[in-house]
Amino acid sequence: MDQRGEGDYFKMMKLNTSHALLKESIESYQEKVNELHKVIFERTGAGNDFMGWVDWAETYDKAEFERILKVAEKVKDKAEVLLVCGIGGSYLGARAAIEMIQGLYSGNKTEVIFVGNTFSSTYIAQVLKHIQDKSVVLNVISKSGTTTETALAFRVFREFMEKKYGKEECKERIIATTDKARGTLKALADKEGYETFVIPDDIGGRYSVITPVGLVPLAIMGVDIKKIMAGLYDAYKELNTADLSKNPAYQYAVCRRILQNQGYDVEMFVAYEPQLAMLAEWWKQLLGESEGKDGKGILPDSANFSTDLHSLGQFIQEGKKVLFETILEVENPTEDLLIPTDAENSDQMNYLTGKSYDWVNKMACLGTIEAHEVTGGVPNLIISIPDMKEYSFGYLCYFFFIATAMTCYMIDINPFNQPGVEIYKKNMFRLLGKPTK
Ligand code: PA5
Fold this sequence. Notes:
Elements: E1 14-19, H1 30-41, H2 56-59, H3 62-76, E2 81-85, H4 92-102, E3 111-115, H5 121-131, E4 136-142, H6 148-173, E5 174-178, H7 184-192, E6 195-198, H8 212-220, H9 225-238, H10 248-261, E7 266-271, H11 277-291, E8 299-304, H12 313-318, E9 323-330, H13 357-375, E10 380-385, H14 390-409, H15 422-432
Parallel strand pairs: 2-3, 2-4, 4-5, 5-6, 7-8, 7-9, 9-10
Antiparallel strand pairs: 1-10
Helix pairs in contact: 1-14, 3-8, 4-8, 4-11, 9-14, 10-14, 11-14
Bound molecules: 5-phosphoarabinonic acid (PA5).
């Protein structure tokens, strides 16, 4: 595996707190972090049945991983369109990774379309029309196998597939990722003879992008999932230290607590790359669903700059001081280009001739940090990653997983359950007339 040596911490991900306006020192939390680090790695805390992600980089099913690669290779050519049917933890990670790693207009010959994450009739009807004459592969993903958005869309798209290809060929074109034994989806997949992949019992939805939940669609889309696992593995090794001076993930976890103690109840995740917008959505689920319980937590929000500086920027600069920003800074863009010259300079932009577009983006970031911190009094945390490639994605997943566990345990919250999301379902089922058993 493509691993780097010991002692490379901080080379991969860095946390810059020099603009964070912290009123307590991070080091003063060392004792607390020592105690909770043990709780995490010895799995003795709340929700410890769902901590399979902790050593997943080592324990994952290698045979299944090879099968993912094989199946992806087999279906790739058939997939002019890859439909990925899932919601929440069974959706956001794959989308975040594909967009981050490949960009928004990568020229990939397979188009990925996400369904099963909405009840919007217009959306579903338009996707059906859009794929009518295209060659389609469908990956349905649901741990419970009973999530209504996913199950309903799967019914619609399965009917589409069966009409288009017949049941026999659907065995080659429909892949189900679900529980190893339980649930309606598992039973249906077995009955129909679909290829199936397993969602581990001890990894919850929002931590599952590193399992077949994310890896199957990623592999079909041509993402190098071996490199994702390599990044995950190195993070697992490097971030397994309670020493705050060596662990940027724990530093981040502590900074969140310090900033909330200072009265900031909203965290805005900021990126300067449109291809990170879905990563922000994934991060929002991870933090929001993990921490927002018992009347506690920081509300995760997100913005894409400089786009949103022309909308939300006003509030951040001068509105109520409820938020701090966490900037995900990318050191090297996936692509760059030089700004051309214009002999007449009719647009007055020649002062930027020959500069790289990414340099302009970075100057916008620096100027904004100064404006928000110095003039606006808004704390800024800066997390840096070297690039938006597979290895960085794998590393970053572990960084946020372990930071989430730490930051939640620091306020006595179980980071691995989501009791609150059940309530809307109950009401909806009543209104839909779902039979009760
Ligand atoms: O984090 C979670 O548990 C949720 O977001 C679930 O992932 C989401 O509801 C989808 O659940 P399932 O995979 O069971 O269809």
